[in-house]
Amino acid sequence: MMDRSTRGAVGKAARNRALVRTWLYVVAVVLFGLFLVGGATRLTNSGLSITEWQPIHGVIPPLNAAEWQEEFAKYKQIPEYKVLNRDMDLAGFKRIFWWEWTHRLIARSVGFIFAIPLIVLWAAGCIERRLKPRLVGILALGGLQGAIGWWMVMSGLAHRTDVSQYRLAIHLTTACLIFIATLAVARGLAPHSERPATRSVQVFAGWMVALVLFQIYLGALVAGTNAGFSYNTWPLMDGRIVPDGLFVIEPAWRNFFENPKTVQFIHRCGAYTVWIVALAQMIFAFRHAPGTTHARRAIVFFLLVTLQATIGIATLLMQVPIDLGLTHQAMALVVLAFATAHWRGTKGAYPLESPAAASA
Fold first, then answer.
1. Which of 1, 83, 354, 359 makes the best surface tag, with the fewest CB within 10 Å?
2. Are 103 and 34 in contact (CB under 8 A)?
3. Could you please report the per-residue DSSP string of 100-127?
4. pLDDT digits (tens, 9 = 90+) for 176-211
5. Using CA atoms, how far apart are residues 360 and 60, in angstroms rounded to an integer?
6. Is the whole-model pTM more than 0.85?
7. Which residues pair with 237 in a beta bridge?
8. pLDDT of 28-60, one tens digit each?
9. Which strand (E) or helix (H) includes residue 342?
10. Helix (H) or strand (E) run with residue 42 in it
């Protein structure tokens, strides 16, 4: 039996874990909101409405008519306005401006919501030694993500009427990596009622996270090339299972990133692959971990993937209305979050550190 001091140390460690876990889940919820506002910014073509990167001063929006005219004048200098929006008035500009401003404001807020509690909890001795490099890594990745976001916006300010789909995909994928890392650490701090799964079940669950992440990357290419607004039939695409014209651009590799037909076709194939592998994982978990929470989570994951596929098909058939487009994006994040929680759940909670190690 544990003596009183040991029980006290274990109780304190559990309370610290609950505190850190709650903070990380709050960060994940804010990240989820950031994803949705970013998706709305994309679907409303608002991402280029703010043409400067001002990390501090940019928090303050235009406050009077003169400042609004000044901001609008800057937007009029970029190709998007000159080619696509020459008939836009100030009221129309304000509508797209507020989407991008809100997106940037939430992104800045995430940094504070992560960094300030990290400093406080670290100073209070609430963060275990093994977690410190993980959390610092997430913070650094968040800083890099801010730079990637501006790098993406820059691609649409000089010679294009839209941002580069290459940079958009990197931006979204990096955001997803931050989301995955945050949830994985939080899940590792949670109590687990089930023993860790076998190594094979853990590896399968880990590959599902990677596969869902890759499918989201493919979805970003679809968004970046506006590929979802064409070939709005299913299951056939342009009248065929495998459409013609997939490799009309030279060299051939560019079709996977720049040909809207090819990009949409690959995204469709990715969706079929995720569904089939999710089904295989469910069967595998039932065979190798029967009657466990791991197997039950595999069922839920398969059902979530099936629901997401259904939403994706509806979004395509209806030519990407904003409500369905955002629902599709939100559901992709739900699938990614559940895949991450399932994978981390197969590994069990982080082992408790000894009091000496925790204070080191």
1. 1
2. yes
3. HHHHHHHHHHHHHHHHHHHHHHHHTT-S
4. 999 999 999 999 999 888 899 999 999 999 999 999
5. 42
6. yes
7. 240
8. 999 999 999 999 999 999 999 999 888 777 789
9. helix 322-347
10. helix 4-43
